[in-house]
Amino acid sequence: MRSRALLLIPLCLLVMGAKKTKPSAATPTPSAMTASTAAVLSSTPTADGLTAEKVDLNGDGTAEVTNYWRDRPGAPRLLVRKETDLNHDGKIDVRTTFDDAGLRTTEEIDGDFDGRVDWVDHYISGKRSYSEIDTDWNGTFDLFKYYENGKVRRKERDTNGDGRVDFWEYLDESGNVVKTGKDNDGDGKMDVRDQ
């Protein structure tokens, strides 16, 4: 179930406007989420001064996306946050935040639909800079990926679940591991480096 649910991450990226990938058979297809069937169900003010706009993407009468807008005097309204329910269970599966330029700042993903965030992508100037990932779904991030020019260049792992990174991988432009390191004594510092 979890491995199938993680296949929804590419669909999430599709819904958010990122690179298209093929969804699994268990996910809604992009054709079910076309602009011709999308409809705004409601638009209401929030306690923090935003406007929450609930959008039905597939015409079933239930909102799959909620956009949070901020009105700006003399300028177009600004999308501040987008929340998406990918599996139609009424819970948020993806939460994306945007800066004042309209660029993504964070994207939180619940890939196994248990109500907890499993993956967080962080962006600088709209480009992904690093990711925090809970690979064993225990509620704690244990894999950290760092990006340069859209490619993973470093991975850090907490392999024993003590909350400290104890394994490092450095990658080249092609994604090949060129250097690794380990923390053998649990102090959070690299003790062994393999090249």
Task: Walk me through what this model shows.
There is one protein chain. With 195 residues, the protein is mainly beta. The protein has one domain. The protein has helices at 2-6, 8-15; strands at 39-45, 51-56, 65-72, 75-84, 94-98, 104-109, 119-124, 127-133, 143-148, 151-157, 167-171, 177-182, 192-194. A hairpin with a 5-residue loop joins strand 11 (167-171) and strand 12 (177-182). It is elongated, with a radius of gyration of 19 Å. The relative contact order is 0.09.
List the helices and strands and how they pair.
Elements: H1 2-6, H2 8-15, E1 39-45, E2 51-56, E3 65-72, E4 75-84, E5 94-98, E6 104-109, E7 119-124, E8 127-133, E9 143-148, E10 151-157, E11 167-171, E12 177-182, E13 192-194
Antiparallel strand pairs: 1-2, 2-3, 3-4, 4-5, 5-6, 6-7, 7-8, 8-9, 9-10, 10-11, 11-12, 12-13
